[in-house]
């Protein structure tokens, strides 16, 4: 996951599960599957609460418009 997005989540107090696809067996196949299913080939691909949210641009947009925090709370990733 992109350093910026990881840092953003850590700053929120969220402990994300991160899969570095270049470091896991079958990572290339996972990357291709994500691209076919809406990931668009842009990485990081972020899921919140099991739902595909998108890449870094989508996460930053949600953060800037104030809705990322609420999304993380609904997913149970943020308690405050």
UniProtKB/TrEMBL annotation:
PROSITE patterns assigned to the protein according to its UniProt record, in alphabetical order: GLUTAREDOXIN_2 (PS51354)
An annotated GO cellular component: cytoplasm
Domain spans labelled Glutaredoxin: 1-53
Transmembrane segments: none
The entry's keywords: Cytoplasm, Redox-active center
Compartments, as annotated in UniProt: Cytoplasm
InterPro entries: GlrX-like_pln_2, Glutaredoxin, Thioredoxin-like_sf
NCBIfam families: GlrX-like_plant
PANTHER family tied to this protein: GLUTAREDOXIN
Family (UniProt): Belongs to the glutaredoxin family. CC-type subfamily.
Identification of the protein by name: Glutaredoxin domain-containing protein
Protein source organism: Linum tenue
